Amino acid sequence: MASTMLNMTFLLFTSQACCQSLRFTCFLLSSFSFSVQAKSKKTLARPGMKNIVLVEGVRTPFLMSGTTYADLMPHDLARAALLGLLHKTDLPRDAVDYIIYGTVIQEVKTSNIAREAALGAGFSDKIPAHTVTMACISSNQAMTSAAGLIAAGQCDAVVAGGVEFMSDVPIRHSRKMRKTMLSLNKAKTLGQRLSLIGSIRMAHLAPELPAVAEFSTAETMGHSADRLAAAFGVSRVEQDEFALRSHTLAKKAQDAGLLQDIVSFNVPGRDIVSKDNGIRPTSMEQMGKLKAAFVKPHGTVTAANSSFLTDGASAVLIMSEEKAVAMGFKPKAYLRDFVYVSQDPKDQLLLGPTYSTPKVLERAGLSLNDIDVFEFHEAFAGQIMANLKAMDSDWFGQTYMGRKSKVGTPPMEKFNLWGGSLSLGHPFGATGCRLVTTVAHRLQKEGGQYGLVAACAAGGQGHAMVIEAYPQ
């Protein structure tokens, strides 16, 4: 009943406050020569607190699942990212104090993938490593865990990263079959074994695929995105326009050589991969031909305006500024304030950026106008636009967030200018590092001082972080 009332309230809000359509076609003409003039702003450094810096960030090319990486294992991708980081920084393999990796769908043979990838990359076996999971913000959690270790004085240099491998996800036998097989393993007599084998039925042989639905709601994220778009009055055309914008800007960034975080990967037995392969600018006409992917037949979320299943890995080197400078590194950015948020996983599953953005700005003592670079995770075009409409609504801010007025929306001329997850790809556990590294590179390129990363995640969770440019 509560869910139904909230949906009805959202729909009422749609008619009252979302009648104007956000259009993005004009942004397709955005030029990468756009430059934010460096402003004289305060630094977010605080007395008595260590400055924590991003020294370098890399990632493997993000590839559509089932393509060139198909015969690998997840730790192969993670190892490639770690080796790319070592090569790019000339970091001694024993100079790291700790390694943390994020992942979502774990390969059971390498459950602590941080450790296996680190050993495979040649890091000292004396370096501890652990793996975290927090859905689409798993590598965000890896990075902030690294920052916490440094802030606490436990470490001076931590490698954080993330990996996801959707080409070969673990598929289990049914629960009944698993129980029978475990019992067979314990059976002591031939009669016991034959009895157990005789109890197997055809239904027991049905496999269990990894869940793509929320455990608490039994609803897929695509269904949630479709309902959220409907609640906020986000049209199919708006979603397709935003997705086209993402692919077009990603293609421009790729062609201009701006995706500098990518490290080439010599895939064993295959080709050397050096580019993302999901960037595919098309036309509104072609996108309009696709049918609804989740809510059929009248839904607005399609394969073209959703992020695709992706294989990929990322890695970043995070250090105390003091240690980085002592080792001769020139950091890219400061990692400043961050927050995690959590909301109703049924009706507000994907609204993490709306809730996390004002909280992290308040912690940093900044306003939306102070931010020069925005990088939001694009799970679905409908999700992004629903967040933008929620952030632009006094009614939503007052009713659901306890605010006096709306959060405000990021200017599109500062927003995801090098493409996003819709076009670059979204390996669940690896995207957070890509977002942060992209902010650091854009701040350098555009002359800005502050950047903001925000993302939603399964379970109704979200994350935001403020990044400050390192003086050039």
TrEMBL record:
Keywords: Acetylation, Acyltransferase, Endoplasmic reticulum, Fatty acid metabolism, Lipid metabolism, Membrane, Mitochondrion, Mitochondrion inner membrane, Mitochondrion outer membrane, Signal, Transferase, Transit peptide
Signal peptide positions (record): 1-19
Similarity field: Belongs to the thiolase-like superfamily. Thiolase family.
Protein's UniProt name: Trifunctional enzyme subunit beta, mitochondrial
Pathway: Lipid metabolism; fatty acid beta-oxidation
Domain Thiolase C-terminal: 330-468
Gene: hadhb
Coiled-coil annotated residue ranges, if any: none
Catalyzed chemical reaction(s): butanoyl-CoA + acetyl-CoA = 3-oxohexanoyl-CoA + CoA; hexanoyl-CoA + acetyl-CoA = 3-oxooctanoyl-CoA + CoA; octanoyl-CoA + acetyl-CoA = 3-oxodecanoyl-CoA + CoA; dodecanoyl-CoA + acetyl-CoA = 3-oxotetradecanoyl-CoA + CoA
Cellular component, GO annotation: endoplasmic reticulum; mitochondrial fatty acid beta-oxidation multienzyme complex; mitochondrial inner membrane; mitochondrial outer membrane
One GO term of the biological process aspect: fatty acid beta-oxidation
Superkingdom field: Eukaryota
Any single Pfam family the record assigns to this protein: Thiolase_N
Enzyme Commission code(s) on record: 2.3.1.155, 2.3.1.16
Organism: Takifugu rubripes (Japanese pufferfish)
GO molecular function: acetyl-CoA C-acyltransferase activity; acetyl-CoA C-myristoyltransferase activity
